[in-house]
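ok so dumb question maybe but i'm new to this and my supervisor (M.) told me to 'just get the structure for Small ribosomal subunit protein bS18' and walked off. so i did the thing. is this what she meant?? sequence i used:
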Amino acid sequence: MADETSSTPSEQPTSAPRSEGFVPRTPRPAGGPGGARPAGGPGGGPGGRKFFRRKKVCKFCTEKIDAISYRDVRLLQGFVAERGKIVPRRLTGVCTTHQRRLSLAIKQSRNIALLAFAARF
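this is what came out, is it supposed to look like this??
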C-alpha cells in the first residue's frame, strides 16, 4: 500500500503541456554575450584604463563658416568616405544644420560632376 501512494516523476501531473521539441533553458556562462566584461577592456574593471571620448565639435561652428559652397571640393571631400558615401554626423561631429547644408552641397557638386558618386575601381 505504501508503494501506491508514492509516485515516480514520470507519473506526476504537469502544470502545462509541453511540446515535443521543448528544451529547458540553461544559464549563460559569465563571459559570453550578455555576461560580465573581461578586466582591462573599454568598460573598465580592475586594472583597466577608463575610456574617455571627447565630445566632437562642429567644424563649421567653430570656424564660423556660414555658407557651404558646392564649388569647394576640397572641403567637401573631407566629409565624403572613400567609397563615395556621405559620412554621418555622429562620426564627423558636425551639427545638424551644417550637416544638412553639407549634404545638399555634396549632392549639388555630384550633379555637376565636381565630386564622384562612387569610388573608382
